[in-house]
């Protein structure tokens, strides 16, 4: 099937100017960057101002388009001396692109000849297509052809991962700056959490939403003062701004066995310490050895794990 431009050319050569214009309007959409489309449109209309606009657009696309150059030169000369060009038409000067077969000239007849004056609405609509819709389409075509290269599925996936990582980092920074919690429990299902902050600075046993003071001893304690009881299998010890660091810290059972522990970071510099496995009943102490590594000079924070007595 012939292109819209070729159909417009055929209709124009047959003298069917209205039909030619319809096809050339379609050609604008199909081939917005084809300068010949604009030259042909200018050749079949009978409005000097519009002809000049369309020829200028043709030269914007192709500055070396000879028919457009000839036609524009003719229009400008005609504006200076209208009487010298009576009976002539633009198509006489845009050859070889014109509605007439090669080697023939248009007869200098009256305006009531084949050059039917189109309605102003037709010309305005055509100009709108050239200045708005067509140029937008042309820009899109240029972007599609000369913009970003097409990405492979792997590259698209990798780009998506990078975007997600940066978004996640942004959320973490925002939560730190503005002090709100992120819903990250699915990332840290075993991470203990506090329902509230400790009431004051110190070391606590946290159980059932309550903070119980844990007393600091220099050397092994010889009394139960400041040694709270826990019924949990993995008691949670909370350090909040204590006057000591948590280096060289270990959990010791009453038999002398070293129990592995997990340490977690909470909000506002809260440190959470928990046995890494279920605890049996008995006395447990968090022991912090000095640089000399002498147990008799160590600090202790102790608690007891007691079994739950079944109700009778």
Morphology: rod-shaped
CATH class of the largest domain: Mainly Alpha
CATH topology of the largest domain: Serine Threonine Protein Phosphatase 5, Tetratricopeptide repeat
Q: Can you give the helix content as a percent range?
A: 25-40%
Strand content: 15-25%
Structural category is: alpha+beta
Return the CATH architecture of the largest domain: Alpha Horseshoe
How many E-type strands? 11
Number of helices: 7
Rounded mean pLDDT score:
78
Strand count, sense and barrel status of the largest sheet are: 6 strands, mixed
Order of helices and strands: HHHHHHHEEEEEEEEEEE
Uncertain regions spanning at least 5 consecutive residues: 100-113, 131-147
Please write out the topology.
Blueprint: H1 4-13, H2 17-30, H3 35-44, H4 48-61, H5 66-80, H6 120-146, H7 153-178, E1 202-207, E2 210-213, E3 216-218, E4 229-230, E5 236-240, E6 249-253, E7 258-259, E8 261-265, E9 270-275, E10 282-288, E11 299-305
Helix pairs in contact: 1-2, 2-3, 3-4, 4-5
Any overview of this molecule?
The protein has three domains: 143 residues, Alpha Horseshoe (Serine Threonine Protein Phosphatase 5, Tetratricopeptide repeat), CATH 1.25.40; 34 residues; 104 residues, Immunoglobulin-like, CATH 2.60.40. Helices cover 37% and strands 17% of the residues. Strands 3, 4, 6, 7, 10 and 11 form a six-stranded mixed sheet that branches. A five-stranded antiparallel sheet has the order 2-1-5-9-8, with no helix packed on it. A hairpin with a 4-residue loop joins strand 6 and strand 7. The termini are far apart.
């Amino acid at each position: 099937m012939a292109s819209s431009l070729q159909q417009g050319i055929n209709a124009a050569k047959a003298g069917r100017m209205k039909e030619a214009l319809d096809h050339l309007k379609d050609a604008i959409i199909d081939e917005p960057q084809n300068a010949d489309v604009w030259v042909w449109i200018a050749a079949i209309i009978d409005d000097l101002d519009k002809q000049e606009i369309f020829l200028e657009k043709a030269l914007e696309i192709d500055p070396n388009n000879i028919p457009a150059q000839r036609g524009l030169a003719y229009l400008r000369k005609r504006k200076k001396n209208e009487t010298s060009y009576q009976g002539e038409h633009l198509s006489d000067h845009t050859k070889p692109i014109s509605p007439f077969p090669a080697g023939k000239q248009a007869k200098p007849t009256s305006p009531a000849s084949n050059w039917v004056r189109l309605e102003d609405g037709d010309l305005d609509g055509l100009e709108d297509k050239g200045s708005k819709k067509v140029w937008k389409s042309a820009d899109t075509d240029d972007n599609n052809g000369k913009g970003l290269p097409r990405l492979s599925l792997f590259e698209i996936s990798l780009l998506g991962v990078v975007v997600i990582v940066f978004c996640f980092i942004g959320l973490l920074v925002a939560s730190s700056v503005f002090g709100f919690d992120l819903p990250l429990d699915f990332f840290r299902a075993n991470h203990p959490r506090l329902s509230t902050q400790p009431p004051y600075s110190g070391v606590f046993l946290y159980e059932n939403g309550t903070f119980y003071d844990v007393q600091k001893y220099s050397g092994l304690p010889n009394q139960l003062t400041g040694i709270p009881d826990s019924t949990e299998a993995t008691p949670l010890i909370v350090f909040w701004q204590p006057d000591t660091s948590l280096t060289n810290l270990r959990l010791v059972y009453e038999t002398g066995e070293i129990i592995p522990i997990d340490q977690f970071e909470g909000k506002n510099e809260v440190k959470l310490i928990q046995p890494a496995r279920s605890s049996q009943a008995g006395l447990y102490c968090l022991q912090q050895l000095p640089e000399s590594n002498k147990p008799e000079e160590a600090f202790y924070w102790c608690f007891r794990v007691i079994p739950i007595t079944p109700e009778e």
